[in-house]
Amino acid sequence: MNKVIIPRSIGILYSLGNHLTNKHDGKGSSEFDFSHWGGHRYFPISQFYKQRFGEKVYKVSVSIAETCPNRQPNTRMPLCIFCDEWGSAAYHLERDKPLQEQIIINREKIAKRYRAKKFLVYFQSYTNTFDRVSELEQRFEVALSEENIAGIVLGTRPDCLPARILPLLQKTHESHYVMVELGLQSFFDHHLTFLQRGHYVQRGYDAIAKLHEHTGVDIGIHLIFGLPDETDEEIIQTAQILNNLPISNVKLHNLHVLSKTPLAEQYERGEFQPIELDEYINKVTLFLQHLSPDIAVQRLAAVASRWDELIAPQWTKEKMRPTQAIEDQLKSQSIYQGKLS
Ligand code: SF4
């Protein structure tokens, strides 16, 4: 087991449980009120946004960042084994368009599909703090001056938060909603090594401490389950670690194989096999039981948006089936988020 050091200030603050909004009393599920969660047995991010903004809010993804530390020219860093050439961009075909145009196009699509009225601009692709501060500031201004934009969400790596960026995040957070999503992926160094992330767990703790103490922004954590030799004990410990950090939400992904990635090469050599849906469901339901009911869940499983790139498992193509299966298992086993936390 890796020894990890949670910054003391974080540990103390969150052992006081000062971010709790949906306290549970440890009694049976029949006494637990799921209406806070829109009837779900976990705290979905949609309810978190409703509580925060008083109405439904939807993310508008944009692809503006063009690279990351692992992809910059002349780096010796290997690629993260799961990352495709688009760096997790949802709308990679629009990435050559200016930011304002991407916001307008994608906001329109979401507004039509969900009758949405309020939005967060989600800087999703690659590493969105890996640029000059002046450039980031300009992007934030463009995003926040657009109609019906309630705030911004930045996707980044834990080792890409230099001190010079923190005042900008803090200043922006004073006037608008800001969330930083950190791609931690795992709280275990041996899994980060397998994933070729190029950073260790301690970087994650340091990033969370910096964001919390110097900016006050909301913090989301990305995690990957389905790693080789992952144990139930690790899944439980992951939830317990999160419960003691000043974060507001978590996003779960199952490790899946996309073409033209280092993982695809391992898969083709027979060195990696993704887990089946049943096993993934067990991991997520175990995790949720131990996760504080106050941490919102952005997503229960990965969805491959570019089907032609997906090699395995095929269930990652389906948006609803894994989520529904997890919800079904929570119900059939009378369990819910935080039941054992
Ligand atoms: S996952 Fe992020 S940090 Fe890793 S190679 Fe892809 S874009 Fe870069």
Describe this structure in words.
The chain has a single domain, classed as TIM Barrel. It is 36% helix and 15% strand. The chain is built from 11 helices and 9 strands. The chain has a 7-stranded parallel beta sheet with strand order 1-2-3-4-5-6-8. A two-stranded antiparallel sheet has the order 7-9. α8 (232-243) runs parallel beside α10 and α10 (277-290) crosses α11 (320-332). Bound molecules: iron/sulfur cluster. Iron/sulfur cluster is lined by residues 68, 70-71, 79-80, 83, 87, 126-127, 157.
Largest sheet composition: 7 strands, parallel
Shape: globular
Number of domains: 1
The percent range for strand residues is: 5-15%
Number of helices: 11
- Overall pLDDT metric: 90
Structural class: alpha/beta
Supply Rg: 19 Å
Distance between the termini: 21 Å
**CATH topology description:** TIM Barrel
- List the ions, cofactors and other small molecules found in this model: iron/sulfur cluster
* CATH classification class: Alpha Beta
Secondary-structure element string: HHEHEHEHEHHEHEEHHEEH
Strand order of the largest sheet: 1-2-3-4-5-6-8
The tally of strands reads: 9
CATH architecture assignment = Alpha-Beta Barrel
Low-confidence stretches: 12-27
Helix % is 25-40%
